[in-house]
Amino acid sequence: MTRPETSPDSSDFALTQLRALLDDLSGSEDRQLPPERGLAQQIGVGRRSLRRALDVLEAEGRIWRHQGKGTFLGPRPLSAESGFEALSSRTTPLDVMEARLEIEPALARLAALRASNGDIERMEHLARKTATSAATDTDNRELWDGAFHRAIAEAAGNSLLFAFLDTINQIRQDSTWRRLREQARSPQGEQTYVHYHHRIVTAIAARDGDAAEKAMREHLETVRASLIKSMARPPQPEHAGNE
Known about the structure:
The protein has about 240 residues and is mainly α. It folds into two domains: about 10-75, Orthogonal Bundle (Arc Repressor Mutant, subunit A); about 80-230, Four Helix Bundle (Hemerythrin (Met), subunit A) (Up-down Bundle).
């Protein structure tokens, strides 16, 4: 069998050689390739052609490189940060509301069964704080509202569901979404949210899981309806609302 006439200085030749090498290593336990100098000598190509071929293989997801550590087989593993950023970029506000509607009513039910007296006192305090913060600035409202819902999740005592809710809340901190939620707010809506907060806490304090779940679901349905209405509204001029 004759060798191809392609020059060893060709990036195409380097890519062909590297593909064959990766195929040979696919079942190996060693997931790291040799350093570039040794790899270039092993497959008989120049360093420049090697780097270009590695760029192609990395774009294809067959390898990944970490500066100072080397080149590895397979796609780049997601770090916690990059994985979260990717998740956030694919998530819409309505996705968030759908997730909350699946998780938070269940958390309210569990909180009614498991909350300690101290947990209930804390929820009652936070419900009062959401009421007094309703007429203040956005940052203060968001702060106390988030603390209220988080307290219910903590009282539910399910660490996995709590982790899900914590992820959702991190995504909700995106500045674009915060502006969207603020646009959806109204004085009447704020009073409705306060009403539901008190209903939820009252049901939890009474150990009525059904009522707690129902109140939380109705509360979040109201939030979602306001959000949808706001999203359908034409953009306002920048000076609007600043008077």
